[in-house]
């Protein structure tokens, strides 16, 4: 099977996944009250410290230099990139604007379909962005009439929210209540897109009609500035005491961008920014000390990555007076992204994180510059080197992302592209581990494994799960997310097959899978090094409900870099034996029993071979094929995946066994 390349598909994995990211955080997500919250308040403390004598923010000064900088950076782009941006604008010019019918909006309430309406909205936004970029490159007025049309259509939309996000309004799901503007992910992101168009093309738009810029400011005030200033009860803000997640910094970063670009009244702008900083502190206050993102590396861009660019914007608007460069927690939040990197566009994925991801180069570089960290700077250049760059549709989907990458394009080109490829990355708070055979090389065996609990944000029931890569190619895999739908964010989530532990590399004990919820957690989790080998162990018994009748299930991974092997050793105590235990292993390619006690596993590109050694007296072997009828899953893994099951033969209440994964040796 050919390796999937997300940059060569008609609908890229990045585009599909970013739509998948826009999931509501209800049900299991974000509802845990914030207990024992750490009152770090690092952002607002720094803001207060610098504001004691004189105002710290100079928005008007920043605007003048920013607009000129954008023009200069666009002019300095290569002829090829400029031509591509113009080509995309020409293509957009030839397309009709999508209609957004009420019946399409209501589909989510009626049958759970999100994709129809959301897809139509994204096509509108993408067209507007491509037209704006084409006009900024050419500066000939070619695209201004259609930009004006696109802005007017956007400003006339009843809501910038998606149907799935209307749980935020008091009326709940259905149609948007015109008397209650709400701020959510897509409202804030659309606002930032509109604000960029206004900021960079205000004079030109005024010539089309002096009413159009007034309409822009009116709608931004009605949809963003006024509700943000007047309301504290949006859960993602954090003021209600409810625990926040990436919604907080994702929305706040777009609100900050919108504010500095388009809010001209300083008497309202200053308190809004102060409230914005206080709100974003709730996100940072809840972050684990190890800097790990429990939603995974594909969410980092709109979590820790968004925080980095948020701080970078605050720093720039303060003319570098705000300084967060001594904060080691924030530094760890930045370096997390390369700690979870396997090779190329492959990352350690668990839960709703996808297996393929190239971090936004500018988001990575923001941390590199903030901490003068050469590893982060070079990793940012590496990320840029394996993407199509500024003509990449992923960057063009967000106007802010495009301009942030434009700002650092010349600096990234001058750097050596290099991924750190650390041999060992251990995150004790998240209980996530990544190990490779050779420091600085993707060659050899790579292990990613996790402990934790089954109440994490965007959780799958996957405690004790692991992935194996060989020479950078996936062998034993985590499937990652399916396309989001209504059931994804309700209690029905746990009925979706790929969220269940039986479709992860976890044991099925007495016919019972793991259970969802914070209390279903690993215990006695430890990570140590002994005689050149790495040991990662945990007791999984607590992740199973009572009917599993398990008192103890110790799972230990022993990584031996010299031998290029991973041993999986387990020791268990059952209260009752009901049926055999299944050890499940999900693979991207079919497996083959080459002889009794040895199973051949191949990597996704079918050339790298890993052998699983087991005791045939203890286990029998079964395998099955799972057809993937979900777009997001099939984009990642092809038409099907495979589940290898080792089933215990004895009816023991106590026992232990050992399996060994080793490359190229039978």
Core attributes:
666 residues, alpha+beta, Beta-galactosidase, Chain A, domain 5, eight-stranded antiparallel β-sheet, five-stranded antiparallel β-sheet, 20 helices, 21 strands, 18% strand, globular, disordered N terminus
Report on this model:
Among the domains are: 64-243, no CATH class; 424-663, Beta-galactosidase, Chain A, domain 5 (Distorted Sandwich). The protein is 38% helix and 18% strand. It is an alpha+beta fold and 666 residues long.
In short:
By secondary structure, the protein is an alpha+beta fold. The chain contains 20 helices and 21 strands.
List low-confidence stretches: 1-20, 23-36
CATH topology of the domain at 424-663: Beta-galactosidase, Chain A, domain 5
Structural class: alpha+beta
| CATH class identity of the domain at 424-663 | Mainly Beta
Beta fraction: 15-25%
What does the overall shape look like?
globular
Determine the fraction of residues in helical runs and give it as a percent range. Answer: 25-40%
Count helical runs. Answer: 20
| Overall residue-averaged pLDDT value | 92
Q: Give, in spatial order, the strands making up the sheet with the most strands.
A: 11-12-13-14-21-18-17-16
Question: Count of DSSP E strands?
Answer: 21
What is the makeup of the main sheet? Answer: 8 strands, antiparallel
Subcellular location: Cell envelope
Protein name: Heparinase II/III-like C-terminal domain-containing protein
Domain Heparinase II/III-like C-terminal: 447-592
Pfam family, one: Hepar_II_III_C
